[in-house]
Specification:
mainly alpha, 1 helix, about 0% strand
Length: about 100
């Protein structure tokens, strides 16, 4: 009976060693998975930062172009008004010459 108890005890120890080995493997797998996930998250964060910088640059350029377009349109409007005023002045001057002459 003592021998049988020793055999059971040894089998229990072997089972415990096997369980510890499985837990070690599972822990190592989980740590590898965590490292992979962390690396992927860091890469995604870097990519998002780069995309944000590119979008900011594009937005700055777009705003600059819009501002230039607004200035060009304002200058065009001013030129058109000046042209109309010059035409009106020329017509008025011609009218005075015809009427006065």
């Amino acid at each position: 009976e003592l021998e049988a108890s020793r055999d059971e005890l040894e089998q229990g120890r072997e089972a415990a060693r096997a369980a510890v080995a499985e837990l070690d493997d599972a822990l190592e797998t989980a740590q590898d998975s965590l490292r992979t996930t962390r690396a992927a998250m860091e890469a995604a964060a870097e990519e998002a930062t780069a995309e944000r910088a590119a979008l900011q640059t594009n937005l700055t350029h777009a705003l600059s172009r819009a501002s230039s377009a607004e200035e060009a349109a304002a200058a065009g409007n001013a030129l058109e008004e000046a042209s109309r005023a010059a035409a009106a002045a020329a017509a008025a001057s011609e009218g005075e010459a015809v009427g006065g002459g």
